[in-house]
């Protein structure tokens, strides 16, 4: 009797869930027609989301079709519209618009996250982002068109709302991007607005002086302890009434799990992530696992939880795919763990900063850290090559990147 494992999502977690499930299937000598593994997503493409703050975002994708074919994972093109956990089926809307459903024996929800956009007047109409590929392309086209606009301080000013990882990387890349369009002698202004009293609030005091120095060296201003109250075509109004004229406002403040997770009748955290056990199984929802940005998962026994990052999503995906397949094959599962944690924050022309551990101990800065960031962004996070043996070997959950 054929069994079916469905994975929703082709991001880092979904990709590695498929690879890992196929690896376990092969390790136990089960043919693909006995355990069907299917990955559902709108496109057979990995968007290299951590790089979307860079120019030319349309180039920041990698094809998944060849590697999925090499490991006998069926690709199903379409968007999952509904999940019925009682009847164990998903409803899929393909590009032609004619919905169909697929039943599953096990389901892995790897639907990722979306930028949190609060109900701030004018935000939806006038702010850009680097959240999804389409958003980053829209921003890039806008920046490329600035040279055709009348010269003004507002044209040459970029406001980045959010002083976390994404906001800092977008802001520190911006001077070089603007000079490439407006000329090296253009008078530029880049401003980060952060409602917390410190830049990079999650980074802690260790690396913060390095980040603050990089921002000063790049001429980037910070407005701390104040939020954005409104956005319009000409700039932003801050909560304290101050006005910054700008024709480019980038929203980079907060993430939430993708809306599809709301259809799962289970506990969620404040980010909308599904609470899972150590096997990444959703308690009380038989046959369903969640992973990546869709899941709140403990990474160790000391109270630490996975973050919404590709570093955690990649390894979580490998464990989720392995464990979903293990249940169908009747073999032991492997509890998810990820004791090591690093950050490598791009600081544009000022280099980068690399930290290790939850206490953010700084290990590398400047050009050395930038070299590591480049290697992460261009090698480590890309899909394995479309070679069956190499691809399956890459997905051993115990060996998937744990820096």
From TrEMBL:
Domain of life: Bacteria
Gene3D superfamilies xrefs: 3.50.50.100
Cofactor(s) needed by this chain: FAD
Alphabetical keyword list: FAD, Flavoprotein, Oxidoreductase
Domain FAD/NAD(P)-binding residue range list: 4-317
PANTHER family assigned: 64 KDA MITOCHONDRIAL NADH DEHYDROGENASE (EUROFUNG) (PTHR42913:SF3), APOPTOSIS-INDUCING FACTOR 1 (PTHR42913)
Annotated family: Belongs to the NADH dehydrogenase family.
Protein name, UniProt field: NAD(P)/FAD-dependent oxidoreductase
